Amino acid sequence: MKLQKLSNRELEVMHLLWKSANPLIASQIVNIDKDLTVNTVQAALRNLLKKEYIRVSDVIINGTSLARSYEPIVTQGEYLDYFFPAKDRSNLSFVANFVKSSSELDDLEELSILLEKKKKELERG
């Protein structure tokens, strides 16, 4: 599969979908990230559908109207591996920028766990 680069907004929406254990509707995404608007999220979701990063999981009743819920098709790992291959030294600057710009304690904790696991792997072998 040939992946396409995502815009910052598309990546924001994908990040929320990747973190969620369940499919999300546009209004749920807006409730999670108050910096986003429904119109922005809906535009990003349309683009992500066209690029085949997500699929409609279900159509649900939301209040008095129908809403589509979305789930990722492409995993976060697949996206990162495709655009930041292991042999590419820009990975280090990518991770450094991620750490500098991250405001999510959970993300940094997960990264810390992954780093410790990898260090132990390399020490063993």
Short description:
The chain is α+β, with helices and mostly antiparallel strands and 125 residues long.
Q: Percent of residues in helical segments?
A: 55-70%
Q: Provide the structure class.
A: alpha+beta
How confident is the prediction overall: mean pLDDT? Answer: 87
The count of strands amounts to 2
Strand order of the largest sheet: 1-2
- Tell me about the biggest sheet? 2 strands, antiparallel
Strand content: 5-15%
**Roughly how many Å is the radius of gyration?**
17 Å
Secondary-structure element string: HHHEEHHH
Weakly predicted, low-confidence segments: none
Explain the overall architecture:
The protein has 125 residues and is α+β, with helices and mostly antiparallel strands. 58% of the residues lie in helices and 14% in strands. The protein contains 6 helices and 2 strands. It has helices spanning 8-19, 26-32, 38-50, 76-83, 90-101, 105-124; strands at residues 54-62, 65-72. The chain has a two-stranded antiparallel sheet. Helix 1 crosses helix 3 and helix 2 crosses helix 3 (38-50). The relative contact order is 0.12.
